[in-house]
Every structure is written in structure tokens, then in C-alpha cells.
Input
Amino acid sequence: MNLKVHPLLRFKSTHSHFTSIRKAQQQLFYLMLGGNVLKGFIKLVIAISGKHPADIPPALFMIFSSVLLIYLIRKHQKYVKIAIHMALLATIFHIYHRVFSPSVGADILALQYVFMTIICSFFGLNKKWGTIYTLSASAALILPNYLNVVWTPALKPYPQPYNDLYIFINVVVILVSYIYFHGALYGNLNNKKLLNKRLTEVAKIKTNFLATMSHELRTPLNSVIGIASLLIQDNKDNKQNEQLDALKFSAESLLALINNILDINKLESGKFDLESIPFSLPTLLTSIGKGASIKAEEHKINFSLNVDQELSSIQIIGDPTRLSQILYNLVGNAMKFTEKGAVTVTIEIVEKVGNRYTLRFNVSDTGIGISKAQQALIFEPYAQASADTTRKFGGTGLGLSIVKHLVEMQGGRIQVESTPGKGTSFFFDLAFDTVTQAPARIPKNNEAIDPEISNLRVLLAEDNIMNIYFMKQLFKRWNITADIAENGEKVLEYLSNKDYDVILMDMHMPVMDGAEATRQIRQLPNREKAATYIIALTASVSESVQDKVRECGMDNYLHKPFQLNELKEKLQDRIHSTIA
Output
């Protein structure tokens, strides 16, 4: 099988284009040692000429030691820093020998050697050693003024031509060192900019990939969960219902995993927004409690929900979806790790200032508990308390990481108290503005509170065969006769010949997608048709898709997979909006 990989995903480091810092350090050292070899030969020539015969051994040592160090570094690069230390110590020894010799002193060469020490120590080692060697070398230029010391044997000055040649070699070494290291440093900075640019592009590709994969995975799950729900409602055989429950549970577990992966990606990329709408906390908790009670019965443990009575008369303003996600994760974890005893959810008011309430949410259990060492790990993405936990209880380790992010985004801090073998308690405080509970809507003209949706004229825009089958079965249950369009062009064709109360518009379709079809509907000359109520059906939960839903003019949207009642409520809302 021949797989094509996107060029950005084949990204290779531009190390071959820009010299690395490590390589620059090695080249800098070779340059310094090469200069020493050259100066050693000059010293040898001067010694052999008879002007400084005592310098023959030092000159040979200078040449031999420099060549040996170059050889050793090329063969054993891990010793480069040791070699730099040795060279720097030898250079500082020579500086002191030079400045404490009365006939030489702190001349230009001594200043050059101090400067070369600074270059080699800072560029070749690090800030700490650079500071130490710089101060040690610089001190040699000052100490002779305060110490009456003569170095024995004292150095003798070289003839001026040779001295100037030494100065010239040092200038070349210093200049080339700066040129080379400047190129390496700025090359790496440019490399970093290029890498960041490419990583940004790769992040976009990853986001698009996740959006596409979420659509491809969630679309078939919509059929699996939906059809399983219909079969459970219709089937009277208890044994078959158990099997169907297991099927639905597995599909919903897979959906939860997909959602967690998408959520953690959005949280890490900073593209996670919170809603701010009024909602009834007791109503939300009752919904969570129903599901938790069923799961508790399966686990043969007790479940209790304790909510401050004062909260029943108010609505809080926040994000009900994300609060539900936090509590579902915490309650789900508590259920998973509790084999006997109870799971308890408690919500109490800890502070009231005007219309602002601070609530404490506490989810406690009598499960296996978490040790102090393990508590430091459980909020990290993809981490669980131990490998045994993963093997025995399963899970990806994403749930608590998402909980931590969501709580912190709302201004709280998740805390845990636990005793191994006795249980665990997760708790956090969140502050909410509140409003008085809205009164129940009074029906007009004696219409039913639960409106009849069978009279709705519905157009379903969907291209997936299994989703079409599922929706047809669902519409039969609700006595809705719906037309089916396989793409956006068909939607426009149907709408030109017939009026509809609502269009259920899939976002991803061939020929013409749901967004483009909606744009063209909104531009129709017939104002009634142009204002047709459109509900987006999307399996993608990316921010770009949600933005597209709003920008193209859709009235509402529903994520796939959806619960049967979620779609029914959307259709009922459509009737309410028409009546109102």
C-alpha cells in the first residue's frame, strides 16, 4: 500500500542548512587551536633562529598539544567541553605569565588573550563558566598594580615583526570566531522561526484532520446509537434489550473517547469558548442523576444527589454543557472506581453577595482511593494513577485533565482528598450570577404544552444511507412525513417546488454542502422560502464549523450523534417560535 504523506508532515530539521550551536562550539575550538599551532610554529622559528633558544620545548609542546586536542575532539566529540576547559586554563596561565613579566606586561597580546578567553568561555561553555573565566582572566590586567610579584622564568619580548604577526593571527582568529558564531547563532534563530511557522501549519493540518475524522467517526455512530435507541424502545425481550444496551453503551463510550480527544486538542490550542446563558441547576442535576442512578444500580452501589433547596428558585448564568461535562466525568470516574458503598454528589451555597452565588460542587465515593504520589499525576493528559488502574478499569486518562481545564476556565480550582482503600472526594468552587427562575410558559389559544410535531413539513438533507434509514424510522415513530435530499442542489430543487417548516441540513454533502445551500436559500427572491427555518446537523465540533453555521444564516444546529429527545426538542422549539 502506497501512502502519501503531506509535505509538512515530512518536516525535517534544517540542521543541514544552519550550523548547530554544538557544531559552532567545535569549530570555534578548532579555530583557536589552529591559531595556536600557527603561533607555535612562529615561536619555533624564532627559537631556532637563536633569538629565544629556550622556547624550543614550549613551542613543540604548544604545537603537539594543540594538534592532539584537535584529533581527540574529532574522534571523541563528547570531550569537547573538557578540552575547552583545559585550553582556557592554559590561556589564563599564559596571560598571568605574560603580565607578571616586567619586560612584557599587559600588552596588546595580553588584551587579545583576555578577549579570546571571553569568546571561548561564553560561546564554548555557558554563562556561569564564561563569567568565572572572564573575571579570572581580566583580573590579570589589574593585579600587577597591587602585587609586587615577578614571574620566574620571565618572558622576553619578541622582535617587533614577529610580535605584530602574533597580533595579526589573533585578530584573524577573533574576527573569524565572531563571523562564524554570528552565522551559527542567527542561522539557528532563523531555523527556529521557520520551524515555528511550519509547526503552525502542521497544527492547522492537525485541526482540519481532527475535524474531518470527527465527522467520519461521529456520522456512523449517529446511526448506531440512534437505531439502538429505537430498538430498545420497541423491543420487549429483556435479554435482547440487555444486548442492545451493551451495544449502545459501547458506541457511547467510543463517542465519549472521540469527544475527549477533540476537547483536549481544543483546550491545548486555546480554542475553547464557554457559553453564558441562564439555566436551572436542579434540572441539569436531575438529568445527570437519572443516568448516574441507572449506572449505580448496575454496579450495585448507592447514589445520592444533595442540592441546596435555595437553588430550586433561581437560575444561574453559565455554561450548562460544560458543567454537565465536568460532573459526568467526575461521577463516571467515581462509579468506575467504586465496587461497593456509595457515590454522593453535593452542591451547596458557600457564599452569597447580591445576585452572585459561590457554589461548592463535591463528588465523593467509597472506592479504591488515590495515594498522595498518584494525586500528582491524575490531572495530566493521558495519565492515570497507575498501570494497574488502566489494565483493570480502562480509560484514557483524559477525563480529569479536561475537568481541570474546564474548572479553571470558569475561575475555579479542582481539589482532591483521598485515602487509599476508603474513598475519594473531588471538589471545586464556582461563582455564578443568578436570575429569578423564569415562570413556565403559558400556552396560547389552549395549545398543548408538548406540541404535536407530526404536522411539521420537514425536508431532510442527508447523504449517508444509514443515517437516512435511521431518520426515516424516527420520523415514522413521530408520524412525520419527510422528503429526503441527498445534496444541497436537491434541497434547492425541492424548496422551489414546495414549502417546508424546517430543513434538517447536513453540513457535509457532495455536489453542494449544507453551508452553501443555506446561503443560496437566504438569497431567494421569495421571502418566505428564504426565511425557512434551518437546523444544521453536523458531526464536526470544530470552531470553524460552528462559525460557518452562524455565518451562512442557519437558525440552529444539532451535533451528531444526538439523543432522540434532542431532535424532538429542536422541532418543538420550531413550533413554539412559530406560535410566539
User: Anything to note?
Assistant: Residues 1-19, 385-396, 438-450 have pLDDT under 50 and may be disordered. The first helix runs from residue 21 to 48. Residues 272 and 515 are 22 Å apart (CA to CA).
